[in-house]
Amino acid sequence: MPGADWEDFAFEGIGTHWEISTPLPLGVPMRKRLLSRVEKFDADWSRFRSDSRVSIMAREPGRYGFPEEAERLGPLYRKLYGLTDGAMTPLIGASLERLGYDAGYSLTPSGSPLPAPRWNGVLEWAGTTITTTSPVLLDIGAAGKGLLVDLLADELRAEGIDSFVIDGSGDLLAKGPRSTRVALEHPYNPAQAIGIVPLAGRALCASASNRRAWGDGLHHVLDGTTGRPVRTAVATWALADSAMLADALATALFFAPGARLEQEFDFSWLTVFSDGSAAHSAEFEGRLFT
User: Fold this and answer.
1) pTM over 0.90
2) How far is CA 208 from CA 23, 176, 270, in A?
């Protein structure tokens, strides 16, 4: 990744593997600070632990205060909800549980696909306050890991660390003068790449239906209007200034054409479809292999 002379800090968090690469080793206090930030994020937003704020909200409707990152997350989700006609929604948690992607990872559907509730009917998200009129299970997986990448970057910058690469299992943020070459994983063969992207000063996030797949055609990218897994796109990549935005747009590309999203957001993108074809923005920095 960044280079053999950089130091890596690897750990597990929010159910996945992380690596933070820096020119100099991170001290013990900084490492503890980063791990504490990950734990707090998990305690607030995870739907996989019964003591999280999200799980408490799912049991009882009401008015709930969330940490300050909710101010970044809410407006982005609301805008993408509108641009995708409700297909991309944070209210997809119960739908994922119904299909088996639940807190116990049963991977066994308990019923037919369940459409997500309509935003205006059950949810008001104002700044750091989320108010619900009925029990709803939030799932911020479409943008959450990218958001946590950005939050960890904030912690590093607060300590004067300006050059780093954060890798949250494929959600990448590279800061500093050094360029990092990133392989684009083949959607059907993780051992192969379909292209390469030079990454410097930006975030690159991917979404693929094969990453969390189980059963007969079941995977984690669900259309909120139907509760069913998306069938058209199989893999997407988005480059943006923040990891939260890149992560969210990588998911939105499953539901809306990249050209449409480009009208609203400053980013570049690549989408691979189930028929083997691909589309990308004119400014996409990567090179696809032929």
Assistant:
1) yes
2) 31, 28, 12
